Amino acid sequence: MHHPLSVKLDALAERFSKRRVKASIQASVEQAAALVAAAFGGTHVMVKDLPASVQKALASVRYKKRDIKISPATSFRLQSFGGDGVRDFTLVVDLKTGQFKSTYGSWGGPNPYTNNNPTDLDDTKRPLPDGVLVIQGSEGGGRPVYASILVNPATLTPLLPAGGDAELSKEEAAALNIIGGLITFARIDEFERGGLGKYGPENEHVKSLAAKGLVKIASNGAIGLTLAGKNARNR
Hints:
Layout: H1 4-40, E1 43-46, H2 52-60, E2 67-72, E3 75-76, E4 86-94, E5 100-104, E6 126-127, E7 132-140, E8 143-151, H3 153-156, H4 170-181, H5 184-193, H6 204-211, E9 215-217, E10 223-225, H7 227-234
Parallel strand pairs: 2-8
Antiparallel strand pairs: 1-2, 3-6, 4-5, 4-7, 7-8, 9-10
């Protein structure tokens, strides 16, 4: 027969455990929402135009792309999600001192065999003050290193590229979104489906976007977005 005090303690422990699980799930949902917002919003900037300390931090995780997406935020979390053969990382850069701190999750994300890595389950919501920049991304999985930047709105403006917004027609905007969102063979069908004509470097909308500096046409006819095009597509 269980002692009444023992029963009460067990009940309290179970309730506390459920609250922790619920809080962890809520934090994961909030972080996932933040990741989605970062993926579909923000502004692309050239890595070479960023402060030297940020370029050094990106080089430390072998980030090779010429540009990177930067988004405003007032908080961030270290919690790692990982994936098959993938581990997440967070770099916190002090723009005043130039110093940065790196934190890595476990390969494959949280699992019973790496419970000694506090980053995997650290869902603490940390403030992101002015003068501090956070780089979050992932490595592994047979893919290039992915990363994006979070920065306080007060710090954001000096990091953004100069230049105004290009005026786009409805057709140009549709063409820009197709080029930026689909691979080549899928663009062909989508151009025809959207009544934009035959996809290719001679298409009137593609040529117009190129003239506005939003797409680039290679000598072999390949079409891709410029930095300005990526940013115009996100607006």
